[in-house]
Amino acid sequence: MRHPHSIPPPANHNQPGGVHPTILWIWLAACLVVAGCATSPRHAATTDAPRRLTLAELQANPALAAEVQRAFASEVPLVLVLEQGNTLPLRLEMHTPALTMAPVTAQVVIHRDLHLRISRKGLSLSPDGRTWTSVRDVDQTKALLGAHHARLSLALGALAGEGVAVMLSLNATAGK
Question: What span, in angstroms and rounded, lies between the C-alpha atoms of 50 and 47?
């Protein structure tokens, strides 16, 4: 007597159409996998590695800014590497019906290597280019930047020799 979980005996391959059912199932599964991979771009494998670009390369060749801009609409990410010691200009300006601020440019100094992954899926940060966190995840981003305690303040005050001023500051400290 045959065990209920055993494989059935092979069919007689000498007869016309005598193909083992297991072979038919394997063939059918292979056809479905091949057809699915060929027609489904969501699951298609890609060998495209993310393009890696350093801030220094971008600053030396401003024409590369167009490539960075295209990355925001691409499925294949671009990784912008901000290396320790680099400076990055930060331009601030404001134009609203109630308030206007003339453009002001300041220099942001990078104190540790950071990797910024840019793609259609959004922006992600990494300290090493391997472990990523979305910039939308505020707690993880603060932890990655070492800014466990951060404070953003907007105040009205008096500055010596300048009179009344609006002050905007972002301060962060490390530690838990």
Answer: 10
